[in-house]
């Protein structure tokens, strides 16, 4: 049998790889991909805790489904923003999108 | 139970019994599962050989030709000859192609179709795995098909292939919406997403309760397969051959076979969801009859697909998107709501079937009236433009 | 080592490898394909955790919709498919922060006694999808988060359309 810690370590490592992707990547689309990885790590944790501690309840499933919905909404809006920025500025590098910075 | 009424069950018992003597139980289950997977997928792959011959024959009849008639009786061995030709062709890979993705794409496209067969109920007790979310599973594995087209189009490093992939994404993702909505109508009627249960509750076929939903399912499935009139993704007069422009030999053959098998799978799904699957006289006692019924019903859907293919020309890309977003999606949404309400109100009463049928007809008539009004308005506007050319300059 | 453990270790290795390749590839389309591999691995993890419905939804939503749209966006912003440098100038700090985070999380996990617990028996005949469906629309359950999520999706749909729509000339 698999102890809970394995799932938690997997989720922790996946979360940190995603975090690195978000912080270090230049391309805005790649940053969004990193966010997806982090959300997935959270989902693994939610489902693992459900399976090990509260298998009789359904709350974790509801949480995960809502995380799916949030991820879909985030990607739709994020990619629309990126494409709109690309149209005006011809770049998707996050550190070049700095007009609002002072 | 004798061999002739349920050969698969008898064979399975004999085979697992044989293995259980030699190996521990876990290994025996694993091996018999693998054998089952190989059997189901090779059934699909062998079916393709026959389907290609059948389609060529039927298309030939529509075009007043005879079709393949040289290799073997009635040209039955034509496909075998074609396979030999494809296998011996040069396997060319474009120089700047992305090799791994390029080679993976045809395999993914075949897998996407074969995975659907895992949840097809052939007869009572004959099912790969009776998932309780079978319908959702079908929708999910369908997305691998889109993925394979994108992979092929991008990896070929060819402008036409990429254009084909773009069109494919626009078309397949759009038509997934009405397809999923009309998949949900049988789910509502059966109160389950399991494929086996879906067939068991169809004492009246769902095509009687939801004819319009069945029709929309068939149309959007044809678009999902990418057949004429929806073959914009490989429109030879515009973009060479779309996403498989650069493929030769058996890699092209895999795309080709996957498309044919997918077209037949659409027929099978239509038969299961709307035509009662394996149901028929004597199917419960003699499961082998169930397979015959299922294949016969699937052939109806497949024949419609071939018929449409030989009859209609390719539609324009803006018409394709208009048809989806302005016609099929609203109608299927309305149908879903109508089915849900009527099924709840008239549950368990004798009025259920007539009410559902009436609901479908009302939705159809309303949307027809709306569409007519819209097209009249559009025609009037066009006539105004014809009379006063200066009006065109003002309008965008 | 049981068969389950073997499957878990293989899948976990696959996910982490694919995730690592995703954040280090220069070619963004490759990165998106690795993302799909990692997401597919996560759906296998869901199956291992007896959440079959979530595994199927994961494939449908993430691979069928999100990843495809990601690849589409990468291709539409094609000028930058292959960047000169995939990382920005702060990548050293990012690496340090991520490593510290991983280190801290693993230490935290190690200190908690409950992590060694094993999964109890679960009734596999339960229809979790049906239970979830009831929970999402019942007032004692999650009807408000569910409705808020649906409004959010609608707002995202309209917002994405408005943001990405080409500007009209002369405005």
Summarize the structure.
The complex is a heterotrimer of chains A (102), B (396) and C (171). Chain B is 73% helix and 1% strand. Chain B is mainly alpha-helical and 396 residues long.
How would you describe what is shown here?
The complex is a heterotrimer of chains A (102), B (396) and C (171). Chain A has 102 residues and is mainly α. Chain A contains three helices and no strands. Helices cover 76% and strands 0% of the residues of chain A. In chain A, helix 1 runs antiparallel to helix 2 (28-53) and helix 2 packs antiparallel against helix 3. Chain A starts with a helix and ends in a 13-residue tail after the last helix. Chain B is 73% helix and 1% strand. Chain B is mainly alpha-helical. By secondary structure, chain C is mainly α. Chain C has a domain at 3-112: Four Helix Bundle (Hemerythrin (Met), subunit A). Helix content of chain C is 71%, strand content 0%. Chain C has helices spanning 3-24, 28-48, 52-76, 91-111, 128-137, 143-164. In chain C, helix 1 (3-24) runs antiparallel to helix 2 and helix 2 (28-48) runs antiparallel to helix 3. Chains in contact: A-C, B-C. At the A-C interface, helix 1, helix 2 and helix 3 of A face helix 1, helix 2, helix 3, helix 4 and helix 5 of C.
CATH topology grouping of the domain at 3-112 in chain C: Four Helix Bundle (Hemerythrin (Met), subunit A)
Helix share of residues of chain C?
over 70%
Choose one word for the global shape of chain B. globular
Which term fits the overall shape of chain C?
Answer: globular
Helix content of chain B: over 70%
Oligomer: heterotrimer
Biggest chain contact: A-C, 73 and 90 residues
User: Can you list the strand order of the major beta sheet of chain B?
Assistant: 1-2
Compute the gyration radius of chain B: what is it?
Answer: 23 Å
- The named CATH superfamily of the domain at 3-112 in chain C: NADH-ubiquinone/plastoquinone oxidoreductase chain 6, subunit NuoJ
